[in-house]
Structures
1.
Amino acid sequence: MKRPKVIINVASSLDGFIASNKGALHLSSREDLERVHSLRSSVDAILVGKNTVIIDNPLLTVRYITSRKKHPLRVILDSKGSIPIDSKVIKEQKKYPTVIFVSRTHPIEKRDEFNNLGVTIIPVGEEEKTNFLDLIQILEHLKNDFNVKTLLVEGGSTIISQFIQRRLVDKMFIYFAPILVGHLGGIPLLRDELKNTLKKTLSVKITQTKRVGEGILVSMTLLDEEKK
Ligand SMILES: NC(=O)c1ccc[n+]([C@@H]2O[C@H](COP(=O)([O-])OP(=O)(O)OC[C@H]3O[C@@H](n4cnc5c(N)ncnc54)[C@H](OP(=O)(O)O)[C@@H]3O)[C@@H](O)[C@H]2O)c1
Protein backbone atom coordinates (compact mmCIF):
# COMPACT_ATOMS: atom_id res chain seq x y z
CA MET A 1 0.00 0.00 0.00
CA LYS A 2 1.30 3.42 -0.92
CA ARG A 3 1.40 5.62 2.17
CA PRO A 4 0.37 9.29 2.14
CA LYS A 5 3.00 11.76 1.01
CA VAL A 6 4.67 13.25 4.11
CA ILE A 7 5.90 16.85 4.26
CA ILE A 8 7.72 18.22 7.31
CA ASN A 9 7.63 21.95 7.98
CA VAL A 10 9.50 23.51 10.88
CA ALA A 11 10.88 26.91 11.87
CA SER A 12 14.32 27.02 13.46
CA SER A 13 16.81 29.51 14.86
CA LEU A 14 20.06 29.75 12.90
CA ASP A 15 21.70 27.58 15.56
CA GLY A 16 19.15 24.81 15.24
CA PHE A 17 16.63 25.38 18.02
CA ILE A 18 12.86 25.23 17.45
CA ALA A 19 11.94 26.56 20.91
CA SER A 20 13.90 28.06 23.78
CA ASN A 21 14.11 26.85 27.35
CA LYS A 22 12.36 30.08 28.29
CA GLY A 23 9.30 29.20 26.19
CA ALA A 24 8.08 29.78 22.64
CA LEU A 25 10.33 31.56 20.16
CA HIS A 26 8.87 33.98 17.66
CA LEU A 27 10.50 32.39 14.65
CA SER A 28 7.99 32.90 11.86
CA SER A 29 7.67 36.22 10.07
CA ARG A 30 4.35 37.37 8.61
CA GLU A 31 5.55 36.24 5.18
CA ASP A 32 6.46 32.82 6.54
CA LEU A 33 3.11 32.45 8.31
CA GLU A 34 1.37 33.11 5.00
CA ARG A 35 3.57 30.45 3.38
CA VAL A 36 2.85 27.93 6.15
CA HIS A 37 -0.89 28.53 6.01
CA SER A 38 -0.86 28.22 2.23
CA LEU A 39 1.00 24.91 2.69
CA ARG A 40 -1.62 23.82 5.26
CA SER A 41 -4.40 24.61 2.80
CA SER A 42 -2.77 22.35 0.20
CA VAL A 43 -2.68 19.20 2.38
CA ASP A 44 -5.32 16.77 3.67
CA ALA A 45 -4.12 16.57 7.29
CA ILE A 46 -1.78 18.35 9.74
CA LEU A 47 -0.04 16.30 12.46
CA VAL A 48 1.65 17.38 15.72
CA GLY A 49 2.80 15.65 18.91
CA LYS A 50 1.28 15.85 22.34
CA ASN A 51 3.93 18.18 23.77
CA THR A 52 3.37 20.73 21.03
CA VAL A 53 -0.34 20.81 21.90
CA ILE A 54 0.45 21.22 25.61
CA ILE A 55 3.18 23.85 25.17
CA ASP A 56 2.07 25.86 22.11
CA ASN A 57 -1.68 25.19 22.15
CA PRO A 58 -1.95 25.60 18.35
CA LEU A 59 -5.27 25.82 16.50
CA LEU A 60 -3.94 23.98 13.42
CA THR A 61 -6.36 25.77 11.11
CA VAL A 62 -5.82 27.67 7.86
CA ARG A 63 -5.64 31.41 8.49
CA TYR A 64 -3.75 34.39 7.01
CA ILE A 65 -4.86 33.36 3.51
CA THR A 66 -8.19 32.70 1.82
CA SER A 67 -8.66 29.07 0.91
CA ARG A 68 -11.56 27.38 -0.83
CA LYS A 69 -10.33 23.87 -0.10
CA LYS A 70 -11.86 21.56 2.52
CA HIS A 71 -10.15 22.18 5.86
CA PRO A 72 -7.32 19.73 6.64
CA LEU A 73 -7.90 17.14 9.34
CA ARG A 74 -6.07 17.89 12.61
CA VAL A 75 -4.09 14.90 13.90
CA ILE A 76 -2.50 14.52 17.36
CA LEU A 77 -0.22 11.71 18.59
CA ASP A 78 -0.88 11.25 22.31
CA SER A 79 -0.44 7.67 23.64
CA LYS A 80 -2.33 8.20 26.88
CA GLY A 81 -4.92 10.69 25.63
CA SER A 82 -3.62 13.27 28.06
CA ILE A 83 -3.85 16.62 26.25
CA PRO A 84 -6.00 19.22 28.05
CA ILE A 85 -9.65 19.05 27.14
CA ASP A 86 -9.70 22.83 26.59
CA SER A 87 -6.83 22.72 24.05
CA LYS A 88 -7.61 24.86 21.00
CA VAL A 89 -7.20 21.82 18.76
CA ILE A 90 -10.16 20.18 20.53
CA LYS A 91 -12.46 23.11 19.90
CA GLU A 92 -14.81 23.57 16.91
CA GLN A 93 -14.91 19.88 16.05
CA LYS A 94 -17.69 20.20 13.50
CA LYS A 95 -15.82 22.80 11.49
CA TYR A 96 -12.29 21.49 11.99
CA PRO A 97 -12.34 17.78 12.96
CA THR A 98 -9.55 16.33 15.10
CA VAL A 99 -8.27 12.76 15.37
CA ILE A 100 -6.16 11.64 18.32
CA PHE A 101 -4.05 8.51 17.92
CA VAL A 102 -3.59 6.74 21.25
CA SER A 103 -1.98 3.53 22.48
CA ARG A 104 -3.84 0.26 22.18
CA THR A 105 -2.24 -0.90 25.43
CA HIS A 106 -2.52 2.10 27.77
CA PRO A 107 -5.66 3.23 29.56
CA ILE A 108 -6.86 6.45 27.89
CA GLU A 109 -7.23 9.21 30.47
CA LYS A 110 -9.92 11.35 28.84
CA ARG A 111 -11.61 8.95 26.41
CA ASP A 112 -15.17 9.87 27.47
CA GLU A 113 -14.56 13.61 27.42
CA PHE A 114 -13.02 13.40 23.94
CA ASN A 115 -15.84 11.17 22.66
CA ASN A 116 -18.47 13.56 24.04
CA LEU A 117 -16.85 16.42 22.18
CA GLY A 118 -16.85 14.44 18.91
CA VAL A 119 -13.10 13.95 18.75
CA THR A 120 -12.18 10.69 17.01
CA ILE A 121 -9.90 8.44 19.09
CA ILE A 122 -7.98 5.72 17.24
CA PRO A 123 -5.93 3.12 19.14
CA VAL A 124 -2.79 1.83 17.42
CA GLY A 125 0.15 -0.36 18.41
CA GLU A 126 3.55 0.85 19.57
CA GLU A 127 6.92 0.46 17.93
CA GLU A 128 9.00 -2.08 19.79
CA LYS A 129 12.26 -0.11 19.90
CA THR A 130 10.90 3.27 20.93
CA ASN A 131 7.52 2.59 22.55
CA PHE A 132 6.17 5.45 20.47
CA LEU A 133 2.97 4.98 18.47
CA ASP A 134 3.57 3.06 15.25
CA LEU A 135 3.82 5.64 12.46
CA ILE A 136 3.14 3.07 9.72
CA GLN A 137 -0.18 2.11 11.31
CA ILE A 138 -1.04 5.79 11.71
CA LEU A 139 -0.31 6.52 8.04
CA GLU A 140 -2.43 3.51 7.03
CA HIS A 141 -5.39 4.76 9.08
CA LEU A 142 -5.03 8.26 7.68
CA LYS A 143 -5.04 6.91 4.14
CA ASN A 144 -7.77 4.28 4.50
CA ASP A 145 -10.15 5.93 6.99
CA PHE A 146 -9.75 9.60 6.08
CA ASN A 147 -8.51 9.50 2.48
CA VAL A 148 -5.38 11.47 3.41
CA LYS A 149 -3.10 11.68 0.41
CA THR A 150 -0.77 14.37 1.74
CA LEU A 151 0.17 14.85 5.40
CA LEU A 152 1.91 17.91 6.83
CA VAL A 153 3.99 17.18 9.96
CA GLU A 154 4.59 20.35 11.97
CA GLY A 155 6.49 19.09 15.00
CA GLY A 156 7.72 19.09 17.57
CA SER A 157 11.22 17.80 17.71
CA THR A 158 10.41 14.23 18.83
CA ILE A 159 7.80 13.75 16.12
CA ILE A 160 10.08 15.12 13.39
CA SER A 161 12.94 12.91 14.60
CA GLN A 162 10.76 9.80 14.49
CA PHE A 163 9.46 10.48 10.98
CA ILE A 164 13.06 10.99 9.81
CA GLN A 165 14.32 7.92 11.64
CA ARG A 166 11.68 5.76 9.93
CA ARG A 167 12.49 7.45 6.58
CA LEU A 168 8.86 8.45 6.18
CA VAL A 169 9.60 11.89 4.75
CA ASP A 170 9.10 12.98 1.14
CA LYS A 171 9.89 16.64 1.54
CA MET A 172 11.13 18.90 4.32
CA PHE A 173 10.99 22.67 4.71
CA ILE A 174 13.13 24.37 7.35
CA TYR A 175 12.56 28.08 7.81
CA PHE A 176 15.67 29.60 9.38
CA ALA A 177 14.74 32.73 11.29
CA PRO A 178 17.41 35.39 11.90
CA ILE A 179 17.73 34.43 15.58
CA LEU A 180 20.49 32.82 17.65
CA VAL A 181 19.26 31.12 20.81
CA GLY A 182 22.81 30.55 22.09
CA HIS A 183 23.22 30.43 25.85
CA LEU A 184 19.45 30.38 26.47
CA GLY A 185 19.44 26.79 25.21
CA GLY A 186 16.31 25.10 24.01
CA ILE A 187 14.66 22.32 22.06
CA PRO A 188 16.84 21.18 19.15
CA LEU A 189 15.34 20.53 15.75
CA LEU A 190 16.28 16.86 16.14
CA ARG A 191 16.34 14.81 19.32
CA ASP A 192 19.34 12.87 20.70
CA GLU A 193 17.52 9.57 20.25
CA LEU A 194 17.70 10.11 16.48
CA LYS A 195 21.36 11.10 16.54
CA ASN A 196 22.18 7.90 18.42
CA THR A 197 20.59 5.69 15.78
CA LEU A 198 22.32 7.27 12.80
CA LYS A 199 25.57 5.61 11.80
CA LYS A 200 26.73 8.71 9.95
CA THR A 201 25.40 12.18 9.43
CA LEU A 202 22.19 12.25 7.45
CA SER A 203 22.54 13.75 3.97
CA VAL A 204 19.80 15.78 2.36
CA LYS A 205 19.40 17.15 -1.14
CA ILE A 206 18.68 20.86 -1.02
CA THR A 207 16.12 21.49 -3.73
CA GLN A 208 15.58 25.22 -3.17
CA THR A 209 16.65 28.13 -0.99
CA LYS A 210 14.56 31.25 -0.84
CA ARG A 211 14.48 34.47 1.12
CA VAL A 212 11.14 34.66 2.99
CA GLY A 213 10.70 37.81 5.05
CA GLU A 214 13.88 38.29 7.10
CA GLY A 215 14.67 34.55 7.11
CA ILE A 216 15.68 31.81 4.69
CA LEU A 217 13.51 28.92 3.62
CA VAL A 218 15.42 25.75 2.75
CA SER A 219 13.51 23.02 0.88
CA MET A 220 15.02 19.52 0.87
CA THR A 221 14.55 15.81 0.40
CA LEU A 222 16.32 13.11 2.45
CA LEU A 223 18.88 11.05 0.60
CA ASP A 224 18.93 7.27 0.93
CA GLU A 225 22.09 6.08 2.71
CA GLU A 226 23.39 4.29 -0.39
CA LYS A 227 23.06 7.40 -2.55
CA LYS A 228 25.46 9.40 -0.35
N1 LIG B 1 9.51 25.91 15.62
C1 LIG B 1 8.59 25.09 15.16
O1 LIG B 1 8.33 25.05 13.95
C2 LIG B 1 7.86 24.19 16.12
C3 LIG B 1 6.77 23.44 15.66
C4 LIG B 1 6.12 22.60 16.56
C5 LIG B 1 6.58 22.51 17.87
N2 LIG B 1 7.63 23.26 18.28
C6 LIG B 1 8.14 23.14 19.65
O2 LIG B 1 8.46 21.77 19.89
C7 LIG B 1 8.36 21.53 21.30
C8 LIG B 1 7.71 20.19 21.52
O3 LIG B 1 8.51 19.17 20.93
P1 LIG B 1 8.76 17.81 21.71
O4 LIG B 1 9.82 17.08 21.02
O5 LIG B 1 8.94 18.11 23.16
O6 LIG B 1 7.35 17.06 21.61
P2 LIG B 1 6.37 16.69 20.38
O7 LIG B 1 7.18 16.20 19.24
O8 LIG B 1 5.41 17.79 20.17
O9 LIG B 1 5.55 15.49 21.03
C9 LIG B 1 6.23 14.31 21.36
C10 LIG B 1 5.30 13.35 22.06
O10 LIG B 1 4.34 12.82 21.13
C11 LIG B 1 4.00 11.51 21.54
N3 LIG B 1 4.18 10.55 20.45
C12 LIG B 1 3.34 9.51 20.22
N4 LIG B 1 3.74 8.79 19.19
C13 LIG B 1 4.88 9.35 18.74
C14 LIG B 1 5.77 9.00 17.68
N5 LIG B 1 5.56 7.96 16.86
N6 LIG B 1 6.87 9.75 17.52
C15 LIG B 1 7.12 10.80 18.33
N7 LIG B 1 6.30 11.20 19.35
C16 LIG B 1 5.17 10.46 19.56
C17 LIG B 1 4.93 11.13 22.69
O11 LIG B 1 4.22 11.32 23.93
P3 LIG B 1 3.38 10.05 24.50
O12 LIG B 1 4.39 8.92 24.60
O13 LIG B 1 2.85 10.48 25.80
O14 LIG B 1 2.34 9.76 23.48
C18 LIG B 1 6.05 12.15 22.58
O15 LIG B 1 6.69 12.41 23.80
C19 LIG B 1 7.59 22.70 21.89
O16 LIG B 1 8.44 23.47 22.69
C20 LIG B 1 7.13 23.50 20.69
O17 LIG B 1 7.16 24.90 20.94
C21 LIG B 1 8.30 24.10 17.43
Note: Residues 135 and 163 are 8 Å apart (CA to CA).
2.
Amino acid sequence: MVTVTVKCRHCGSENLSKNGFAPNGKQKYLCKDCKKASREDPTSNAYSQDFRELVLRACEERSSLRGAARTFSIHRHTISRWQEEKKTNSSSS
Ligand SMILES: [Zn+2]
Protein backbone atom coordinates (compact mmCIF):
# COMPACT_ATOMS: atom_id res chain seq x y z
CA MET A 1 0.00 0.00 0.00
CA VAL A 2 1.13 3.50 -0.80
CA THR A 3 0.26 6.23 1.64
CA VAL A 4 -0.78 9.42 -0.07
CA THR A 5 -1.47 12.69 1.63
CA VAL A 6 -4.60 14.10 0.13
CA LYS A 7 -5.70 17.64 0.70
CA CYS A 8 -9.15 19.02 0.29
CA ARG A 9 -9.18 20.92 -2.96
CA HIS A 10 -11.77 23.31 -1.63
CA CYS A 11 -10.16 24.44 1.61
CA GLY A 12 -6.76 22.68 1.64
CA SER A 13 -7.48 20.74 4.83
CA GLU A 14 -5.91 17.32 5.36
CA ASN A 15 -8.73 16.38 7.71
CA LEU A 16 -10.43 14.03 5.25
CA SER A 17 -12.29 10.80 5.68
CA LYS A 18 -12.67 8.14 3.02
CA ASN A 19 -16.00 8.23 1.29
CA GLY A 20 -16.16 5.28 -1.09
CA PHE A 21 -14.98 5.12 -4.67
CA ALA A 22 -15.79 7.20 -7.69
CA PRO A 23 -17.05 5.35 -10.79
CA ASN A 24 -13.58 5.53 -12.32
CA GLY A 25 -12.08 3.75 -9.32
CA LYS A 26 -10.61 6.75 -7.59
CA GLN A 27 -10.85 7.05 -3.86
CA LYS A 28 -13.34 9.66 -2.81
CA TYR A 29 -12.93 11.75 0.32
CA LEU A 30 -15.19 13.83 2.45
CA CYS A 31 -13.66 16.91 4.01
CA LYS A 32 -14.47 17.16 7.71
CA ASP A 33 -13.76 20.87 7.76
CA CYS A 34 -15.79 22.22 4.86
CA LYS A 35 -18.02 19.15 4.36
CA LYS A 36 -17.34 19.02 0.65
CA ALA A 37 -16.41 15.93 -1.32
CA SER A 38 -12.97 15.60 -2.87
CA ARG A 39 -11.32 12.86 -4.82
CA GLU A 40 -7.81 11.84 -5.55
CA ASP A 41 -6.08 14.22 -7.90
CA PRO A 42 -4.73 14.92 -10.39
CA THR A 43 -4.77 12.04 -12.85
CA SER A 44 -8.29 12.42 -14.09
CA ASN A 45 -9.48 9.27 -15.82
CA ALA A 46 -7.03 6.54 -14.83
CA TYR A 47 -7.67 3.95 -12.17
CA SER A 48 -5.62 4.57 -9.05
CA GLN A 49 -2.75 2.29 -8.14
CA ASP A 50 -4.52 1.26 -4.95
CA PHE A 51 -7.59 0.30 -6.91
CA ARG A 52 -5.52 -1.83 -9.28
CA GLU A 53 -3.95 -3.62 -6.35
CA LEU A 54 -7.37 -4.22 -4.85
CA VAL A 55 -8.71 -5.71 -8.06
CA LEU A 56 -5.64 -7.83 -8.71
CA ARG A 57 -5.73 -9.18 -5.17
CA ALA A 58 -9.40 -10.06 -5.58
CA CYS A 59 -8.54 -11.94 -8.76
CA GLU A 60 -5.85 -13.93 -6.97
CA GLU A 61 -8.07 -14.79 -4.03
CA ARG A 62 -11.07 -15.88 -6.05
CA SER A 63 -9.08 -16.94 -9.10
CA SER A 64 -11.95 -15.59 -11.14
CA LEU A 65 -11.22 -12.72 -13.47
CA ARG A 66 -14.81 -12.51 -14.68
CA GLY A 67 -16.14 -12.39 -11.12
CA ALA A 68 -13.77 -9.60 -10.17
CA ALA A 69 -14.62 -7.69 -13.33
CA ARG A 70 -18.29 -7.90 -12.42
CA THR A 71 -17.67 -6.94 -8.80
CA PHE A 72 -15.68 -3.84 -9.68
CA SER A 73 -17.61 -2.97 -12.83
CA ILE A 74 -14.55 -2.87 -15.02
CA HIS A 75 -13.77 -4.78 -18.17
CA ARG A 76 -11.93 -8.06 -17.76
CA HIS A 77 -9.60 -7.05 -20.57
CA THR A 78 -8.57 -4.13 -18.38
CA ILE A 79 -7.77 -6.52 -15.53
CA SER A 80 -5.74 -8.84 -17.73
CA ARG A 81 -3.78 -5.85 -19.00
CA TRP A 82 -3.03 -4.85 -15.40
CA GLN A 83 -1.90 -8.37 -14.65
CA GLU A 84 0.52 -8.18 -17.56
CA GLU A 85 1.76 -4.78 -16.46
CA LYS A 86 2.25 -6.03 -12.92
CA LYS A 87 4.37 -8.92 -14.14
CA THR A 88 6.46 -6.49 -16.15
CA ASN A 89 6.81 -4.00 -13.31
CA SER A 90 7.60 -6.50 -10.57
CA SER A 91 10.67 -7.70 -12.44
CA SER A 92 12.13 -4.21 -12.66
CA SER A 93 11.37 -2.96 -9.13
ZN1 LIG B 1 -12.38 21.16 2.76
Note: The first helix runs from residue 49 to 62.
